[in-house]
Amino acid sequence: KISYKMYKYSTYMVTTIWVENILNQYHTGIYALGEVARPSKILEKAISTYNMQNDIIVGINGSGFIVNGTFGQSFYNLNHAYNNSAQTPYVLERGKLIRDLSAYVPRNQTVMGFDKNGIMKFYTFNKANNNASINKPVVDAMKNDRIKDTIGFGPILLENGKVMTSDTANNLRQGFCQVDNNNYIIVTNTTTTRSSGFNFKKLATYFQGLGCKNAYNFDGGGSISLLVHENGKTTKIFGDARNDADIAYLNG
User: Fold this and answer.
1) Which of 7, 36, 133, 150 pairs with 42 at a CA distance of 20 to 30 A?
2) 19 and 1 in contact (C-beta within 8 Å)?
3) Strand locations in 49-182, DSSP E?
């Protein structure tokens, strides 16, 4: 089961979430390979697909996007996402491999997932230049850890309690962190003014002060979305304005 509380501050919201067993509660929702939709639509599809209508679910937008041409036409074509592409090079949903672009990573990209013990872990895919062998050890490590679901954006904010970024450029952010196996915190900017947002270092330090061990930056800006599904109804707490390729949600 899941329980949650939301605390609204002037320019951001903090959502604390408790679950009984993370191994069965954390998942990603993929709309369809090569398609994008509003996060609320992706969540509704996941609820219908897995018969979770009566569950309590907290969902947020997932991976970031690249615009056609950013890393070359060939990489864009491989993502099959029309106008935008999910950045995650290795996409897993409930243990099922949805997309493997590990041979075509155009720049180093860190993916977040949960291992077999419910611990939030990070995997860095290296620039591959059409060479699958470069990232084979990364893929093998994810398989050995029995990673079930992945999200790709970044950067890593905290790892084992240590701040992992020094970036001080303010923007609209949404971060996800793990306090322990059954306790999670989401910080969501609820302003449209970038100067009122977080920089990565400030967000990491904030999570650290909340007792988080590991924290990761999800897609921000106009992609920010915070959703709650309860009593058979999905409520848009904030955002849901831009089409995405996937979401992350905790349910119980």
Assistant:
1) 7
2) yes
3) 57-61, 65-67, 84-86, 90-93, 96-100, 109-114, 120-125, 150-152, 156-159, 162-163, 174-180
Q: Which helix (H) or strand (E) holds 203?
A: helix 200-209
Tokens encoding 173: 């952010």
The secondary structure of residue 22, as a DSSP letter, is G
Amino acid at 119: I
Q: How much of the chain is helix, strand and coil, in % rounded to 5?
A: 20, 40, 40
What is the reported pTM? 0.90
Q: How far is CA 95 from CA 73, 86, 103, in A?
A: 29, 18, 20
Two structure tokens written together for 164: 């992992």
Task: Enter the tokens of residue 92.
Answer: 């897993």
- What the block records as the tokens of 107 is 């720049």
